[in-house]
Specification:
Elements lengths: L7 H8 L9 H5 L8 H44 L15 E4 H4 E3 L4 H6 L5 E5 L10 E3 L2 E4 H4 L4 E4 L3 E4 L4 H4 L2 E5 L5 E4 L3 E6 L5 H8 L2 H8 L2 E2 L6 E2 L1 H6 L1 E4 L2 H43 L6 H8 L14 H18 L8 H14 L9 E3 L2 E3 L1 H14 L2 E6 L2 E6 L3 H12 L2 H12 L4 H19 L6 H8 L12 H12 L14 E2 L2
Parallel strand pairs: 3-9, 4-8, 14-18
Antiparallel strand pairs: 1-13, 2-10, 3-5, 6-9, 7-8, 7-10, 11-12, 14-15, 16-17
Helix pairs in contact: 3-11, 13-14, 13-15, 13-16, 14-17, 14-18, 18-19, 18-20, 19-20
Length: 514
Amino acid sequence: MYYCSTLKDVLLKLSGKATIDFIAISKLKNIEISLPPLPEQQRIVALLDKAFSAIERSRNNAEQNLKNAKELFESYLQGVFDPSTRSGQENKRNGWEEKKLSEVCEIKPPKSEAKKKLNGTDMISFLPMEDLNVADIKIKSIKERLLKDVSGSYTYFANNDVLLAKITPCFENGKLGIAKNLINNVGFGSSEYIVFRSKESVLPEFLFYFLSREHFREEGKLYMSGAVGHKRISKEWIENYIIPYPPLAEQQAIVRQLDALRTETQKLEAAYQKKLQDLEELKKSVLDKAFRGELTASALEATSVCKVIPLQKVEGISATDLQAGITAIALKKHLKKDKSHSLHHVKVEKFVHLSEYILNIDLERNPVKDAAGPNDFPHAKKVESRARKAGFYMVYKNGDYYNYKPGHSMNNIIQKAENCLGYKTNILFKLLDLFLLMDTKQAEIVATIYAAWNNLIIKGKTFSDEDIVTEARENWHKEKLKIPRERFFNALKWMKNNELLIPKGNGKLVTTKG
C-alpha cells in the first residue's frame, strides 16, 4: 500500500494524460517494484506507520490551530459590536449610538455622479465579482474599462465606498472590501454588489469590520430570497439593519486594534497553512527514504520535529524591551495586589516563558530544561541589565531570593509594551490573573508541564497525561524528582480547565541543558 502511493508519476506516464482515468492492465503488470525480504518489509511498514501517525497528529494540531486563529479574530470582532460584551453598558454604551444603515450610509450612490465628472471615453476601474476577495479591506482593482462600456448594467462606486456581495454564495462567503486607488476615482463592477458610502458619523473601515462579522452573515441568510442558487439579500433588511457606533476617535482606535489583530491572524494562518504544506512534503520525504533503504528510527525522530510554527515578532519594540515590559506589567500588578513578596526571579522567568508561548511572541529566548523549569537566564540577565540602566525596574538580593522594585521609567515601558502588544495585552492580563494565585513552586510546575506538553505536541507524539507528567518530571531535570508526582497531575488537571494554559505546539523545543 505504502509503495503504491509513490507511483503517481509512473502511472501518469503510463496513462499519457495529466490525470489518470484509465491504464491498461497489461501496462500495470509490467511495472517493476523493489521488493526487500519480508522482515525488512515489516520493519519499513512499522516505521511508516509510526511516521504517518505522527504526521497525522501534527496535521490535526495545525488544522485546529488554523481554526483557532480564525475563531480568535471572529470572537474579538463580534465582541466589539455585541452590547453584551462591551464594557460600560450602564452608561448608555459610553457614548455609542445606534442607527439604521440607511441613516449612516448612502446606499447605492447614483451613476450620474460618474457621468457628470467624466466622458464616456475616459478610463475607469472595473471589478467583476471574481476579483472581490473575502473580507479584504482594501480592494485593489487592476482591470480597466471605458466608462461608456460599463455605465449601463454595472454597479457604480467610488474611492472609500464599501462593497458587499449580495448574492449567494458570495454573501455567505464574506466577499467584501473598501474601494481604493480607483482610476479617475471611479469604479464599476458586478450588478450583485451593494455599495455603502459612509456619512460623517461612521468611518468606512469601521463599517467594513461591522459587515465582515460572521454573525451578520448568519442573520442575513435568513432574509435572502429568490430561486435556489440565485438568492439575494433583502434590500429592506440591509437598509433597516441597526449599526452601533461610538464617536469617531473611538472608531479610529477600534479600527487600529482590529487591523493589528487581522494582520497577526493572517500571519498565523499563513504559518499554519505552511505547516500543512510542510507536512505533505514530509510524507513524501519519509516515503522516499523508506524505499531507498534510508529510513531508520533516528532519521524518523529527526524529521518529526523539523517543521515547527515559529513565534511572531512584535513590531515597534525590541525583544529585550518587550520582555522588560512584560516583567514590569507583572511587577505592577503584584504591587497593586500586595503580592510583590511572591514575585521572585524564578516566578518571573516562568511568567515570561508562558507569555512568550501563549501570546505567540518572539522574545528571542532559547529556553532549556533547567532545575526550576524552562529557563533562559543568560537572556534574562541581558533584559535585567537593560531594565536597570533604563530605569524600568531593579533586581536585588533579598535573603534566599531575588526580588524586584520599580524604577522611574516603569510606567513608560509598560505603556509601550501594551501599545505594541495591542489586543494581546488582554490575554497577558488573563495569564497574569492566574499567576497571581501561584507561589514560586506552583509557577515552576505549571510552566514545566506547559513546556513538556508543548514539546510532545511539536514532536508529533502520541501521549497521555502520564506521558506529559513523565516528560515534565522524570525526563526534565533531576531536581524535579524531589516534587511528588501527584502535584504534577493536580497541576495538569487545573491547566486543562484553563484553556489559556493548553499549549498549541508552536515555538521552539525546550532542549536539555548543556
